[in-house]
Design goal:
The protein is mainly beta. Helix content is 5%, strand content 36%. It has seven helices and 71 strands. It has a six-stranded antiparallel beta barrel with strand order 1-2-5-4-3-6. Strands 34-35-36-37-38-60 form a six-stranded mixed sheet, with no helix packed on it. Strands 39-61-62-63-64-65 form a six-stranded mixed sheet, with no helix packed on it. 26% of the residues are buried.
C-alpha cells in the first residue's frame, strides 16, 4: 500500500452517515479515483458546499469505494461528517498540514515529522533520537528502522559506539574536508606505488619500502627505506640537522652502539661496540690507531702512544723525521698561519645561543637567533597554534589562528597534502586548487562503501557497487565532453530526456513515448531506426529484429499484443532475400496476418476494405491505367465466390471472357434458369467504354463517370491524381535518427561537494556538478538505478542486474521525453545481444495512448520528397558483410502547410536486390507483385471485405471456393459490373435489339452469353408474350 497523489481526480458520491464512501463516477473533465490504484491511500476532500471533510482515504477497486482511514480536518470538529442524503463531490487534494513548502524565508519546515527516503519508511532523516525523544537542535539518520548517525552543532557521530564506518577497504571517499580528525583504528594512505599504514596494534605509522616521509615546502627532507637500506636525506640545498639532548646510533634490535652524541658533552664513535673516538673540551681522544693519508689539525694534539706519519708540517714548516710533537697556541691562530681557522660573526652568534630544549636556530635577516614554540612555528609558516599530543587533529579554536597544521592544534592545511595508500596515493595540490587522485585511487562513499569515484588509467568510473541506486540529482542534468562544448545527454525535470550524437539531438522522450529526430536539410536521408543483427555466423531465416507492442492484460501481466519481425530468408552474398512479418494476438496466440517478401505479399487473414476503399490493379505495365475492383454499397452482408476454375471475369457490357453462345431452344427448355436482361443491364450495355470511365449508379440508372466527377462519387474529392509513390498520412509523425558512438569523457572536476550520506551536492547556488574522466576514459555508472532530476528524481536509468536497462521519465506523477541526437550523417547504435529486444513501454492505464516511436525529420528547409526516415532490418550475409534485408520507409510528397501529403513503402530483398512490395499514399494502398491470402488452422478461408460507401454493419465479401488446383481469375481490360448468380433484378417487359448485343446466363454455374436473336427478340419492341415466355424460360 502506498500514498498516491493524482491530479484532476474528482467523483460524486451519495454516501450517507460516517461510513466508507461509495464512488459514483468521475465528474466531466476529471479522472476517477481508479487512478490511485487498488489498496493505495490518498488525500481527499468531500464537500456539499456547506460541510467538508479532509482526510486520508484507502481506495478499493472492487466496489469502487474510498474508506475514511484518517480524518485530518472537517466541519464536524475534525471528526467524520455524518452525511445526510444528497449528492456531493469528493476529490484528491493536498492538505495544508501535510504539505512541504518553502516559507517566506525559503525554508522548508519538517519539524513535526521525518524526511522518509524509501518505500517502507524505515530510512529517514528525522529529529527523533534513538530513545524516540524529539531533539530540537539535532538531526538523526535512520537506516533500516534504526538510528545510525547523529548530527548536532558540535559533531557528527554514530548513534552507538562503532555504529558505522566511513568507507571501507574498497569503498573509499574521494575527499574529506575537516578541521579535526581522530582515527581510532588502522589508517592506510595509498600511493601510486607504495603505501603508509598507521597500525593501531603496533602503535606505529608504517611506511612500505620506498614510501617516503617528506618534510619541508620543497620536500627536501626524506626518510624512507629502499628495501636494502634506510635513508634520511636532505635532497635540497639546506642542512640535515639531528637535534636532541642525546643522540645514539645503535645496531637494530641490540644494545651495540655505533655512535653517541651528548648535549654539552662528548661525541663518541664506536667500532664493534668499542669506543674508538671521543670528543672532549680540549679536542678529541682516539683509542687505537689513526690511519689517514692526510691529517690537518687546528689546535692541540694529545697523543697517548705513538704518532706515526710519513711527514708532518707544523705552521708551514716541515718537521724532521725525528720530531714527534709540537705546540700550537693562540698566537698561531691569531697570525693566520693556520689557513683554515675560522671564527666569524655567524659562528659567534650560534656559539652564544642557549641550547634550551626545543630551541631552533633560525636567521632573522641579520643574525642567527634561537626560537621555540609559536615563534618558531610562525617562522616555519605553520601558524602560532600551541602543540598538543600527537595523533589527533584539534579544532582551530585550540590555537591562536585558523591556519595551524600541527596535530591537535590546527584545522587547515595551507600547503600540499599527500595521502599515501598501499598502492595509490591522493594529493591535495595547492597550486592546482584540487584534490588529485592517482589512477585507481578511489573516493568511496556510504556506510558500505558502495559509491566509488575513481579513474582506472583507461577510464573514469562512478560506481555503486552495493545493492542501492546511483542517483544524480538536479533540475537539469547534462553529460558533456571534457571541454563542455558538446552535449551528449540532457535530462530535464518534468520534461524530456534527450540523447545527442556529435552535439545534435537524435532521441527525445515525450509524454507519449520517444521521438527520433534528424536535422538534415537534404532530401536524401531522414532519421532511420536500424535493427542490425551483427552475427558472426549468419544463416537463412535469422530474425533480424522485431518491433513489439506491449501492454498489460486484465491480470496486470505484461503482454505482447502485436509485433513486426524482419527475417533474412537467404544470407548468400549478392543474392540476399528477406521478408517482413506482421503478427497480432488472437485468443492468446500469435496470428500471422501479412508477410512481405519473396517478391510478393502474403495475406494470411481476411482483408477488410473499409468505407469507400477499392482494390486497384496496376497490371503488367506501370502507367496511369489501372483496373479498380469496387463494390456497390451493400444493403446487407454479401458474399462473392470465385469458383474452382480458371478463367476471365465476364463484365455486363460483354467484354472479357469469350462465352459460348446459347440459342432459343436452350432457353425454352429451361436449362438456363437464371438469365437476366433488365433495365440495369441495359444501362451498363449502353455506356461507352471510354478509357478511364467508371460505371456508377446515380440513383436511377448506371452512368459513366471519369476524372474528378468519378473521384467525387467515390468520396475522394476532386483533387487531381498524383504519383503512386506519394502518401498522405493523417495523424502523428514517423521520425528517425542515426545512432553512433560518442567520444569518451576524459576529465573529472569536483567543486564544492558536500558529502551527506550517499549524495553528492553542489554547494554553489544553482551550481553544476560535472564528472570529467581523465585522458580518453569513460564515465561508468555501476548501479541498478540512476535517477536524474530534482528532489523528486523523476528520471530513472535502471538495470535489474541481468543485462536489462530501462530509461524512464515517468517516475512519480511526472512525465518527460528522451532525446538522442547526432551530427551530420552520424549513427546511433542500440545493440541488444543474442535474443535481446529493444522495448518501447508505456505505463499509461488509458486506452487512447500506447507507446509511440516517432521518426522526426526536423529539417530547417523541408522540401517535397524529403526522406522522413525508416525502419531497417539488417544482418550479416554469408560473406560476413552487413546487409540491409528489409526496409519500411516514408517520404514527404507535399510539405505545403495545411495540405501535407506523404507515403510509406515496404521493401524486402529478392535475389540480393531491394524490391518494393507495398506503398500507402493519398488514401490508397498500392501493392507491387502478388497479394497472397493464405489460410491456416485459425483462419482456413481468408477473404477480402469491402465496406462500401457507408460505414455500417453491411459488407461485401470477396471469397473463393476452396481450389482443387491452381486457378487464375482474369479481370478484362474493360469497365463494368460483375454479374453473379446472386443478382435478382426484375426483368423488363420490353426490349429491342438496340438495347443489348447479348445477355448473360448462368448455365449450371458457368456464365454464358446469348444474343437477343437467340431469345427471339427482333428489332423493335418485343411482345408481351415474348417477355412472358422469356420469364417462364428463366424460371
Amino acid at each position: 500500500m502506498a500514498l498516491v497523489l493524482k491530479d484532476r481526480v474528482k467523483e460524486t458520491t451519495t454516501t450517507t452517515g460516517t461510513g466508507t464512501y461509495t464512488l459514483a463516477g468521475a465528474v466531466a473533465g476529471f479522472e476517477a479515483f481508479s487512478e490511485i490504484g487498488n489498496s493505495n491511500t490518498t488525500y481527499y476532500c468531500c464537500t456539499d458546499g456547506t460541510d467538508f471533510e479532509v482526510g486520508i482515504g484507502t481506495y478499493t477497486l472492487s466496489g469502487t469505494t474510498l474508506a475514511r482511514t484518517t480524518i485530518l480536518q472537517s466541519s464536524n470538529s475534525d471528526n467524520a461528517v455524518n452525511w445526510s442524503s444528497g449528492s456531493r463531490t469528493i476529490f484528491c487534494t493536498q492538505p495544508a498540514e501535510k504539505a512541504v513548502f518553502k516559507d517566506a524565508n525559503n525554508n522548508v519546515d519538517i519539524s513535526s515529522g521525518s524526511l522518509i527516503i524509501d518505500t517502507d519508511g524505515d530510512t529517514a532523516i528525522t529529529n527523533v533520537d534513538e530513545t524516540n525523544a524529539v531533539s530540537g537542535n539535532e538531526i538523526h539518520f535512520k537506516l533500516g528502522g534504526t538510528n545510525r548517525a547523529h548530527l548536532d552543532a558540535a559533531r557528527f557521530r554514530p548513534s552507538a559506539d562503532l555504529g558505522f564506518s566511513l568507507g571501507q577497504s574498497n569503498r573509499r571517499f574521494n575527499a574529506l574536508h575537516t578541521s579535526t580528525a581522530t582515527f581510532y583504528g588502522d589508517v592506510t594512505f595509498t600511493g601510486d606505488n607504495y603505501n603508509v599504514v598507521f597500525d593501531k596494534s603496533d602503535d606505529a605509522l608504517e611506511f612500505a619500502d620506498n614510501a617516503k616521509a617528506v618534510f619541508g615546502t620543497g620536500g627536501d627532507l626524506e626518510i624512507y627505506h629502499s628495501g636494502g637500506q634506510s635513508l634520511i636525506a636532505e635532497i635540497g640545498t639546506g642542512t640535515l640537522n639531528l637535534k636532541s639532548n642525546e643522540v645514539e646510533i645503535s645496531k637494530a634490535g641490540t644494545t651495540e652502539k655505533m655512535a653517541l652524541f651528548t648535549s654539552d658533552g662528548a661525541v663518541e664513535l664506536y667500532h664493534d661496540n668499542s669506543k674508538k673516538l671521543e670528543t672532549a673540551s680540549g679536542g678529541i681522544s682516539v683509542t687505537g690507531e689513526v690511519a689517514a693519508t692526510s691529517l690537518d689539525i687546528s689546535g692541540d694534539v694529545d697523543v697517548d702512544g705513538t704518532l706515526e706519519a710519513d711527514a708532518i708540517t707544523l705552521n708551514g714548516t716541515a718537521l724532521a723525521a725525528s720530531a714527534t710533537t709540537d705546540t700550537t697556541n693562540a698566537s698561531n691562530i691569531g697570525s693566520g698561519t693556520l689557513p683554515n681557522a675560522r671564527l666569524d660573526a655567524q659562528l659567534q652568534d650560534v656559539a652564544g645561543l642557549a641550547v634550551t630544549n626545543g630551541n631552533f636556530i633560525v636567521g632573522d635577516g641579520s643574525n642567527f637567533v634561537a626560537e621555540s614554540g609559536a615563534t618558531a612555528r610562525a617562522s616555519l609558516g605553520l601558524g602560532t597554534a600551541a602543540t598538543s599530543a600527537t595523533g589527533d587533529f584539534a579544532t582551530a579554536a585550540q590555537g591562536t589562528t585558523a591556519d595551524a597544521a600541527m596535530p591537535k592544534a590546527g584545522g587547515t592545511f595551507t600547503g600540499d597534502v599527500t595521502f599515501t595508500g598501499s598502492n595509490y596515493n591522493i594529493v591535495f595540490d595547492k597550486s592546482d586548487d584540487a584534490l588529485e587522485f592517482a589512477d585507481n585511487a578511489k573516493a568511496v562513499f556510504g556506510a558500505g562503501g558502495d559509491l566509488q569515484i575513481y579513474h582506472s588509467g583507461s577510464g573514469s568510473f562512478i560506481s555503486d557497487a552495493g545493492t542501492g541506486n546511483l542517483r544524480i540529482g538536479g533540475s537539469a542534468v547534462t553529460i558533456e565532453n571534457s571541454s563542455f562544448n558538446e552535449t551528449m545527454m540532457l535530462a530535464t525535470q518534468n520534461g524530456a530526456v534527450e540523447l545527442y550524437h556529435d552535439n545534435v539531438k537524435k532521441l527525445e522522450t515525450t509524454a507519449d513515448g520517444v521521438t527520433l529526430t534528424s536535422t538534415d536539410a537534404g532530401s536524401a536521408a531522414g532519421p532511420i531506426l536500424k535493427f542490425n543483427r551483427d552475427s558472426s555466423s549468419p544463416a537463412s531465416n535469422d530474425s533480424l529484429g522485431q518491433i513489439q507492442f506491449d501492454g498489460d492484460d486484465s491480470g496486470g501481466n505484461s503482454t505482447t499484443y502485436a509485433k513486426i519481425t524482419g527475417v533474412a530468408t537467404d544470407t548468400t552474398n549478392t543474392s540476399e532475400d528477406s521478408r517482413i512479418k506482421f503478427e497480432v494476438l488472437n485468443n492468446g496466440s500469435f496470428d500471422t496476418h501479412f508477410v512481405v517478401g519473396f517478391g510478393a505479399n502474403f495475406m494470411y487473414r481476411n482483408l477488410n476494405l473499409m468505407q469507400n476503399t477499392d482494390l486497384v490493379f496496376e497490371g503488367s505495365t506501370d502507367d496511369s491505367n489501372e483496373t479498380t475492383l469496387t463494390v456497390a454499397d451493400p444493403t446487407a452482408d454479401r458474399t462473392i465466390t470465385l469458383p474452382d476454375a480458371t478463367g476471365t471475369v465476364q463484365l455486363t457490357d460483354g467484354s472479357g471472357a469469350s462465352l459460348t453462345s446459347l440459342n432459343a431452344s436452350q432457353l425454352s427448355s429451361g436449362t438456363v434458369p437464371n438469365a437476366r436482361l433488365d433495365q440495369q443491364l441495359q444501362d451498363v450495355a449502353g455506356l461507352a467504354v471510354t478509357n478511364g470511365n467508371f460505371i456508377v449508379g446515380d440513383g436511377s440508372n448506371f452512368v459513366a463517370e471519369s476524372g474528378a466527377t468519378a473521384r467525387t462519387s467515390l468520396g475522394l474529392g476532386t483533387i487531381a491524381t498524383q504519383a503512386a509513390d506519394s502518401v498522405n498520412i493523417d495523424g502523428g509523425a514517423i521520425d528517425g535518427v542515426t545512432i553512433g558512438t560518442n567520444s569518451a569523457v576524459t576529465e573529472l572536476q569536483v567543486d564544492n561537494i558536500n558529502i551527506n550520506g550517499n549524495n553528492i551536492i553542489s554547494t554553489n547556488t544553482d551550481g553544476n556538478v560535472r564528472l570529467i574522466p581523465n585522458g580518453s576514459g569513460d564515465v561508468q555508472l555501476n548501479a541498478d538505478t540512476v535517477r536524474i532530476g530534482g528532489n523528486n528524481q523523476n528520471v530513472a536509468l535502471t538495470t535489474n542486474g541481468t543485462g536489462d536497462l530501462t530509461l524512464s521519465t515517468n517516475e512519480g506523477t511526472n512525465s518527460g521525453t528522451i532525446v538522442i541526437a547526432d551530427g551530420a550523417n552520424g549513427n546511433i547504435s542500440i545493440t541488444p545481444d543474442g535474443s535481446g529486444v529493444l522495448d518501447v513501454i508505456s505505463t499509461d492505464d488509458g486506452s487512447s495512448i500506447g507507446p509511440k516511436l516517432h521518426l522526426y525529420r526536423n529539417s530547417a528547409s523541408p522540401a517535397d520528397f524529403d526522406d522522413m526516415g525508416g525502419l531497417v532490418f539488417s544482418a550479416n550475409n554469408s560473406a560476413g558483410d552487413r546487409h540491409e534485408y528489409s526496409l519500411i520507409r516514408s517520404e514527404v510528397a507535399d510539405v505545403t502547410d495545411g495540405s501535407e501529403d506523404a507515403y510509406i513503402q515496404f521493401f524486402t530483398n529478392v535475389g540480393g536486390s531491394s524490391l518494393q512490395h507495398m506503398s500507402m499514399a493519398f488514401g490508397a494502398t498500392s501493392i507491387t507483385g502478388q497479394l497472397f491470402l493464405a489460410g491456416n488452422t485459425i483462419h482456413s478461408n481468408p477473404h477480402i471485405k469491402f465496406e462500401g460507401s457507408t460505414s455500417n454493419a453491411h459488407e461485401t465479401t470477396f471469397n473463393v471456393t476452396d481450389p482443387t488446383a491452381d486457378r487464375t481469375i482474369t479481370l478484362p481490360d474493360a469497365t463494368g459490373t460483375v454479374l453473379t448468380t446472386g443478382n435478382s433484378d426484375t426483368p423488363t417487359t420490353t426490349t429491342s435489339s438496340s438495347d443489348a448485343d447479348f445477355v448473360l446466363v448462368d448455365d449450371g454455374g458457368t456464365m454464358k452469353k446469348i444474343t437477343p436473336a437467340n431469345l427471339g427478340i427482333t428489332a423493335g419492341a418485343a411482345s408481351t408474350d415474348d417477355a412472358t415466355a422469356l420469364a417462364i424460360a428463366l424460371g
